[in-house]
Design brief:
The structure is a homodimer. In chain A, helix 1 packs across helix 2, helix 2 crosses helix 3 and helix 3 crosses helix 4. Chain A is built from 6 helices and 6 strands. Chain A is 37% helix and 18% strand. In chain A, strand 4 and strand 5 form a beta hairpin. The radius of gyration of chain A is 17 Å and the shape is globular. In chain A, 26% of the residues are buried. A 4-stranded mixed β-sheet of chain A has the order 1-5-4-6. Strand 6 of chain A pairs antiparallel with strand 6 of chain B, so a sheet runs across the interface. Bound molecules: manganese (II) ion (2 copies) and zinc ion (2 copies). Chain A binds a DNA duplex through helix 4.
DNA sequence: CTCCTATATAGTAGCTACTCCTATCTGTCA
DNA sequence: TGACAGATAGGAGTAGCTACTATATAGGAG
């Protein structure tokens, strides 16, 4: 059985921020206000935003923030294991700071990326010849199709 | 048990070309020399080329071919179900005319996309709540990591 | 606390991978 | 063998990064 992901508690959120600060120190990275703000924004959403989407959300509170900083920062986040690039095909890269086991469904119409969790997908077993030949760093089960809102013909904010 | 994909016979190749011509007619599309050449090139390779890669391969034989035509054509191929965009994260879109059940391993260093086939991955069962809420058009098991050549530290042609 | 410096940021320019536009051409059918 | 809707070539335009450089600042030394 699977379930759709839900919000985290303020305590969980704070714990993750604390972990992130430690992870930065560990990696020899400065905890700049921009870096923290970008991480918080990514952590607090389940929309799997692109760099541009994060930039637009942060701009009101951070008027001098540059898009390049957002791009550099999300790349840094993936490098220290605080986030990852969501699998998909085409368009802008989408990011995710949710490190718990879960999977993604992407709507090909509205480009929404929706979290779900199905335990059998968490640790799919690799075929022996692949495991023997390659170093597998990431195993993903990924679904694409039409989401509930687009099926109903409802008007959804189109992306791109 | 899984196995790595291998070449098709000339007879199989011809059969697929024949199918493609019929599929074009069926869809009300003209069978132009460019369209056929692009499909043949994509069908004859297991490299999962980008539009640019196809363009470079075809240029010697088709000096007046434009990159835009390649881009439009691979899009058309996906629309009529003669090809699909390979899943992945970031970079140029990569295409595949191989419609048989198989899966992909992508090397994060050299960007090679390698076919393999593991039967348990062919028809993974959807969680009921996802199947009920969304129309799932594509189910993908996707692996990423370091390929055999890159592990050996061999020099491989870097992409991008 | 204050200063120092390596690292990070802002602003901008450049690049890659498409996507759109328009004049010209051609596969298909009558 | 035309006629013409659909396709292509070439070029311009756009989105999404990526590189460059002067300025600013986090965080450690003193
Ligand atoms: Mn997610
Ligand atoms: Mn393939
Ligand atoms: Zn949708
Ligand atoms: Zn490799």
């Amino acid at each position: 059985m699977s379930y759709f992901a839900n919000k985290m508690s303020p305590a969980e959120f704070d714990a993750k921020i604390h972990w992130f600060v430690g992870r930065c120190r560990e990696a020899g990275l400065r905890v700049t206000p921009q870096r923290l703000a970008i991480y918080k924004e990514l952590l607090g959403t389940d929309e799997h935003p692109s760099a541009e989407m994060l930039y637009e959300k942060l701009k009101p509170a951070w008027p001098t923030l540059s898009l390049d900083t957002v791009n550099r920062t999300v790349l840094t986040l993936t490098e220290i294991g605080a986030a990852f690039i969501v699998e998909g095909s085409g368009g802008a890269r989408r990011f995710d700071a949710g490190l718990e086991h879960h999977q993604h469904f992407k709507c090909v119409k509205c480009e929404r990326i929706i979290d779900f969790h199905h335990e059998p997908f968490d640790n799919i077993e690799l075929p022996p010849d692949v495991a023997g030949k390659f170093t597998v760093l990431r195993k993903t089960v990924y679904l694409e199709g039409i989401c509930d809102l687009c099926k109903q013909g409802m008007k959804v904010v189109q992306r791109s």
